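Need residues for this backbone.
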């Protein structure tokens, strides 16, 4: 995405159309569009030809961008789990790992970055009926690997609003749920985690359309990406009007939900009842 964004800026600065850029590398206008959105792999030869077309003659700048192209084609760690991942999910894991700020609303279950192994196993077993124990464990292992980024030094800011329904809907037995609630209380104390609970008592709210995630990146020229998971696929939205609507909904959810301290009190109350 970073390389594609850089190539787009270079093209636009020279007043070159996507069609002309595509012609220069023996490709279509839509191929250039996908390259600029970071949705296809990069051939070094194509990047070299585009840099020449865009007038990038400085050797240091060319080498930096070509190096970025090579990095962009290196498979991420999550590709080793491709046997148990739906084909649309690796894109999300890559975006999540590159984000500096992750904002999310969940209503069905606890967000994957906050799940305990036991709770994650119960969720996967419920969603993958008939799957082999080995496949279930691989899914759980992937979820735990994703959490390492959140907990690492320099990890992203994670602001999440959980609907109370996600906390009252049991996955696993009583001990699994108690362990999950205790984990939420503890992890919400981390400086990069802001956890809020949207209580039943509030009534209707701006999360009425369901769960969503907003991914923001440290590079200022990369637009936010909205991730919407569906039963058999996912949507990735980055148009300004879409992003604005979801950011407005997230802001309202954060404003309408109790703050982190009050939300921890709510979690403690649920823990006592469980």
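Answer:
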């Amino acid at each position: 995405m970073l390389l594609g964004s850089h190539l787009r800026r270079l093209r636009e600065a020279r007043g070159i159309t996507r069609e002309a850029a595509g012609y220069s590398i023996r490709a279509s206008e839509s191929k250039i569009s996908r390259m600029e959105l970071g949705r296809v792999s990069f051939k070094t030869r194509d990047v070299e030809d585009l840099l020449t077309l865009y007038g990038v003659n400085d050797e240091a700048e060319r080498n930096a961008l070509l190096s970025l192209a090579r990095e962009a084609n290196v498979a991420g760690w999550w590709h080793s789990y491709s046997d148990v991942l739906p084909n649309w999910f690796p894109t999300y894991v890559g975006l999540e790992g590159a984000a500096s700020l992750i904002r999310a609303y969940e209503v069905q279950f606890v967000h994957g970055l906050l799940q305990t192994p036991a709770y994650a196993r119960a969720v996967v077993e419920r969603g993958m009926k008939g799957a082999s124990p080995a496949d279930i464990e691989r899914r759980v292992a992937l979820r735990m690997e994703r959490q390492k980024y959140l907990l690492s030094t320099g990890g992203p800011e994670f602001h999440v609003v959980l609907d109370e329904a996600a906390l009252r809907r049991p996955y696993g037995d009583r001990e699994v749920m108690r362990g999950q609630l205790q984990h939420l209380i503890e992890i919400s104390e981390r400086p990069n985690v802001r956890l809020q609970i949207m209580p039943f008592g509030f009534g209707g709210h701006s999360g009425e359309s369901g769960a969503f995630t907003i991914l923001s990146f440290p590079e200022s020229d990369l637009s936010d990406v909205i991730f919407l998971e569906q039963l058999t696929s996912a949507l990735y939205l980055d148009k300004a009007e879409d992003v604005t609507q979801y950011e407005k909904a997230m802001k309202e959810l954060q404003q309408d939900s109790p703050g982190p301290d009050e939300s921890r009190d709510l979690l403690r109350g649920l823990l006592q009842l469980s």
